[in-house]
Amino acid sequence: MNTTRIKCAAILYDGIIYKGRSHSEIGRRMINTGVCSRPFPGGKSQGFFTTSGWYAERDVAMRLAIAAGQVAEGDTIHATELFSEDL
Questions:
Q1: Is the pLDDT reported for residue 1 higher than 80?
Q2: What pTM, to 2 d.p., does this model score?
Q3: Contacts of 5 (CB under 8 A, 6+ apart)
Q4: Which residues constitute the domain of residue 24?
């Protein structure tokens, strides 16, 4: 069985996926390199990069992480959205 897993945190900005360990790390790097200014992109722009090579918003990422056994349902910061701190 080939289950898609969450690989890392990601921010989707202007059609480009920026990846890293946490959204705050990615955001700081984006600001420091001049990609964007403060505040760095939030909301639907923050999600996760998968082992299948695609970007998943927080709600989809939560379902993928539960299905892959990366997190236990009900044992995360938020009930329906995945946060990098959950992994």
A1: no
A2: 0.91
A3: 50, 51, 64, 65, 68, 70
A4: 6-86
